[in-house]
Amino acid sequence: MTVIMPMLSLKMMMINGRIELLHVKRMPFSYIERTMRNCKWILCFIFLSGSLKTVFSQQSDFQFWPQIQIGYELSDKFKLSLEEEVRLRENASQIKKELTDLGLTYKVSKFLRLSLNYRLELTYDNPDERSWRNGIYGDITLRKEIQRFRLDYRIRFQSPKVEAISEISTQNQWLKNRHKISLEYNVKGIRLTPEIEAELFLPFKRQESLAFDEYRLWAKLSYGLNKKNEIGIKYGIQQEINASDPLRAYILGISYSLDIN
Asked: CB neighbours (10 Å) of residue 195?
């Protein structure tokens, strides 16, 4: 009988009911190295199996978000905006939220914009149960134009009373911080603008450490009908993280914007 250990090969034989050691051979280092490498891949497989189980143990939904936005320039520096959006869930069969945003934007320079907004939100917990929420949020936007590209970074400080995942999370938070980066390209010769976006949600909780709880990824396409009217379509993924039963939403959005002056 031969027994192989990580560093030794032992040959043993049963004699008169006793196990006698016949030969001891030291294994080459290359064998030990191969054994450790195999163990490493086994551990990686176990880890990935657990990770995939976590990824696939989640909810998924298709949602539809139509939106209308109206803008009015008070001056070269100030712009007033009104936005209405409806969000449908459960494969776009039930209303999830109705959002009304009123905002004022101040253009500090070509590279910096500040805005203050008020949001009124009607949330449908189920078709027969609705609740009103309202809150304010402020944005700081940095903008850089490179030839036909435009890069934006926006940081938002938002009341936890709006766009909350649950009532419990609302009570536990005192502020929500959102970071969004976007890149758009102005196609030469036509009024078509493709854009990609990524956004992270960071809640400031009362008794817990900081951790992102949600992210959104978007691909957009906007078309300017003329200088005042624009239509757009976008597709995105919204993913909850650090949750026991996270929701992944696949979202189709359409939009229409009008500049009055």
From this structure: 17
* Contacts of the segment 207-211: beta carbons below 8 A, 24+ positions apart: 207/172, 208/172, 211/242
CA–CA gap between residue 62 and residue 126 (Å, rounded): 17
Q: In what order do the strands lie in the sheet with 18-26?
A: 2-4, 8-15, 18-26
CATH architecture for the domain at 60-259: Beta Barrel (2.40)
Beta pairing class for 78-89 and 94-107: antiparallel
| Cα distance between residue 134 and residue 118, in whole Å | 7
**pLDDT, the chain, mean:** 81
CA neighbor of 80 nearest in space, from 58, 105, 108 = 105
For position 40, what pLDDT does the model report?
47
Number of Cα atoms under 13 Å in the Cβ half of residue 57:
10
**Rounded to an integer, what distance in angstroms lies between the CA atom of residue 247 and that of residue 237?**
10
pLDDT band at 174 (very low <50, low <70, confident <90, very high): confident
Q: How far apart are CA 47 and CA 45, in angstroms?
A: 5
Residue 185: both structure tokens together: 């390209």
Q: Where are the domains of the chain?
A: 2-56, 60-259
* Tokens coding 250: 């696949």
C-alpha radius of gyration, the chain, whole number: 29
User: What's residue 236's pLDDT?
Assistant: 97
Instruction: Taking the CA atoms of 252, 100, 176 and 205 in sequence, report the sign of the dihedral they define.
Output: negative
171 pLDDT tier (thresholds 50, 70, 90): low
Q: Cα–Cα distances in Å, from 26 out to 1, 5, 32?
A: 16, 9, 11
* Partner residues linked to 164 by β-bridges: none
